Amino acid sequence: MAKSQVVVKGGYKPLSPGRVWQDYLTMTKPKVVAMLLLTALVGMCLAVPGIPPLKAVVFGLVGIGLQSAAAAAFNHVLDRRFDAKMARTYHRPLAKGRVETHKAVVFACVLMVAGFVVLWQLNALTAWLTFASLIGYALVYTVWLKHATPQNIVIGGLAGAAPPLLGWTAVTGELHSHALLLVMLVFTWTPPHFWALAIHRRDDYAKAGIPMLPVTHGIGYTKTMVLLYTLMLALVGLLPWLTGMSGWLYLIGSSVLNLGFIGYALKLKFADEPGHAWATFKYSIWHLLALFVVLLADHWLAALLI
Predict the structure, then answer these.
(1) What's the pLDDT score for residue 3?
(2) Which of 35, 61, 83, 235 is most exposed, with minimal Cβ within 10 Å?
(3) Confidence band (pLDDT; 50, 70, 90) for 143?
C-alpha cells in the first residue's frame, strides 16, 4: 500500500490533499514552534530600548520558525519507530505510515536550508547558532541523549532554550549576557516541564524503551527532582532583576508564576492525585508563556518611563 493511501471498502483511496498537508503541518509541531517564536520575539524586543527593526523581526522569526519546524520534522523521522509504540504519538504521520520517510526527510531539509538562508540575510552568527540548535535537538538529543541517559532532557534542553538568544542576535548580531540569562530561564524550566509529562506517560516511555527519569529512577524520585528544579527556577528567575535587566514588574510577575509552579510541584510530591502530573505539565506551558510576556511588559514599561 502506498504511504499516501488509506484502506477503504473494495480497495485503497488516496488521502485528500488537505489531509496530506495537515500531516506535513503536524510534523512541524506548530504549537511548540509558536512557543519558541514567542521567546525569540521577546529576545528581540529586549535587545534594544525601543521597537526592534522590522527586517530583523520578520526575517528572524521566519528563519527561526523554519529551522525549528525542520528540527521537529527530523524528530518525527528519527523517532518514528518509538512513536509507533506510544499512546501519545502512535497517530503521528510517520508512525502511522501516512507520509513516506524519504519525503519527510526532503521536507525537513527544505525547511532547514530555507531557514538558514533567511537568517543569513541578517547575520551569520544567528544563522549558525540556529543551525547548531537544530543539530542539537534533531541529532544530539533525539538520536543519542534521549536513549542514552535519564538526564537526556537536562542536557538536551539547551537546544530548546536557545530561541531568546537567537532573537537577540538576530537584532544585534552579537552575544550579550542578558540574552544568556533568558537562555538560563528556559534551560532551568525545561526539566520540570518534561518530567511532569514523563510521570504522566511513564508506562508509554517504558514500553518504548526510552530511559526517561520516571522509568529509570522511579516516579517518587522524579517528583523530588521536579520540586528541586522549580525551586532552582525561582532562584534563576531573580537574576534578571538582580542584574538590572528587568524591574519590579518582572520581579513581582515572575515571583507569582514561580511560586505557582512550586505549588504544583509540592502537591505532586506530597499530595499527588490522579491527573495532577498532567495538570503540572499544562501549568508549566502557561508559566513560560506568561513569564516571557511579563519580561516584555516590564521592558516596555521601563522604556515608557525613561
Answers:
(1) 44
(2) 235
(3) confident
| 270 within 8 A of 303, measured Cβ to Cβ | no
**Cα end-to-end span (Å), the chain:** 66
CA distance 187 to 159: 9
Question: What's the length of the chain?
Answer: 306
Integer-rounded Cα Rg, in Å, for the chain is 20
Beta carbons of 120 and 130 less than 8 angstroms apart? no
State the alpha helices, DSSP H only, in 12-151: 17-27, 30-46, 54-78, 80-83, 101-120, 124-135, 146-148
- Whether this model's pTM surpasses 0.85: yes
Q: How many CB atoms are closer than 10 A to CB 8?
A: 8
Lookup: cell for 207:
514500553
Q: What is the DSSP letter of 48?
A: S
- Which amino acid, one-letter code, is at 109? C
CA distance 292 to 230: 17
Q: 194 by DSSP, 3-state: which?
A: helix
Q: Please check whether residue 99 is in contact with residue 93, taking contact to mean a CB–CB distance below 8 angstroms.
A: yes
φ, ψ of residue 12 to 5 degrees: the values are -115, 145
Q: Which amino acid is residue 206, in one-letter code?
A: A
Q: Which three cell numbers stand for residue 83?
A: 512513536
Look up residue 51 and give its amino acid. Answer: I
Grid coordinates of 139: 541529532
Give me the phi and psi of 281, to 5 degrees please: -60, -45
Give the rounded distance of the alpha carbon of 46 from its chain centre.
Answer: 20
Dihedral sign computed on CA atoms, order 73, 78, 79, 84? positive
Q: Which single residue is written with the C-alpha cell 523521522?
A: 77
Residue 12's pLDDT band (cuts 50, 70, 90) = very low
Q: Which residues contact 62 (CB under 8 A, 6 or more apart)?
A: 115, 118
